[in-house]
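ligand=adenosine monophosphate
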Amino acid sequence: MQIGDLIRRAGKQFGSAPALIDGGRVVSFAEFDALTDRLGHALLARGLDAGDRVAVLMPNGIDGVVVYYALAKAGLVRVPLNVRETVHEHAYKVEDSQARALVYAGDPPAHVEVMITADQLPDLIADAPDGPCDVRRDQDAPLRLAYTGGTTGKPKAVVLTTRSELAEVANFLVDLLPNLRPDSVMLHAAPITHGSGAFFLPHLVKGAPNVIVSKFSPGAFLKAAQKYRATSTFMVPTMIAMLLEDTATAAADLALERLCYGGAPIATSVLQRGIDILGPVFTQLYGQAEAPLAITCLQPWEHTPDRLTSAGKPYTFVEVQVRSTAGTVLGPGEVGEVLTRGPHTMSRYWRRPEATAETIEPDGWLHTGDIGRWDDDGYLHLLDRRHDVIISGGFNVYPREVEDALLTHPAVIEAAVVGLPDDKWGERVAAAVVTRSAAEPDEILEFCADRLAGFKRPRSLEIWPNIPTSPVGKSLRREVRDRMVAAARA
Ligand code: AMP
């Protein structure tokens, strides 16, 4: 099976029903099938061959989605670029992926053989022949390259295949969205190039429309969610915090069944308020570019007060282990690295055989680089990224654990914990927090003191207006650390 087959079948089964809605524009299932066929033909007519990479720099919207799936039908490999990144980052990715074509809105970040502007798309589509565009490729051939967040080192591209994409759709349908039907509605409030994009196909195959909000704000989200009676959505934790700060949220008449979130740790105080205001709709997903969005999930009914810091249980068809540095499989309570295996994982890193060999074991187990532990009930608790671990006086301190303790203070809404160089201890623990009401650093430290062993307690705490985050909402601890080091030198 190919991705195009899913689109073709949805076109036949759901015909004139709305498949995509963006502001005033509505595209039916049959139209979406036809548009992607035509654009697929047009791309091939520009001299591109199956397997060529095509970088796509388009804002959140219908045209971007049409481009994505036209590429799949034409056997071309999609390289999505995040509009919120800089021109240098885009240029690097175009070069690293060896893209032969670039489809872009705005200024081009690079020049490659085939350049197509967003403005040219309507004419390209209008002039292309009708009929199926169906370049069939091996299920293990690259379908798309996803660049990882890049919070450390140069971004690497993860190679995802048709097999991994189909597995991701299946995982979502089994565990996250088991009740999808034609009157379900997905609201994309986050960039479709990232987490939210994974919700597109599951809804499409079940005849449910995908509604796109081109730019997130709590107001825009609430308006669209009420107008279209949205049943599913995806947010990163920062968006949830923003939504809950808006007083209109509690009063809104929403039809949400699933508010999926993930991609970064969430503050338990935010999550609890969210449940109080929006009800039992929260579904957490833990995944990564290398194992797209499906390692573990925490279901709405599992969001009990004692579990809010957990990332949930493995998806039904995904294997998960916690292993020691020596490679022993660990049981409940023991801290180690999280590994996962399943058809949804990446096949390799693009042009980085050494990184691939370090990450994927010969028997398919993938090292996530996340540190975690199981609890007695089989729930996974994530402690941290392997390389963010602070070593103070020979003890490992997991910043996440310290951040969680800080986040239990009612005034704290965001926290970043880092290790600063220290003559005596090697590293010492330092924190920056964002507060929603007045609070004194000493009082916050005092509050969390009994939740943390002495060596884990921050030696200093600063209140910042915001914590620097990456374009996809991950807190950039490295930047927090750099700022603190620079301030100490000044
Ligand atoms: P990326 O590959 O850029 O999507 O980043 C994936 C990383 O984000 C994971 O390896 C985790 O460190 C973190 N992450 C993803 N989902 C969660 C979650 N639900 N809770 C905590 N951290 C998460």
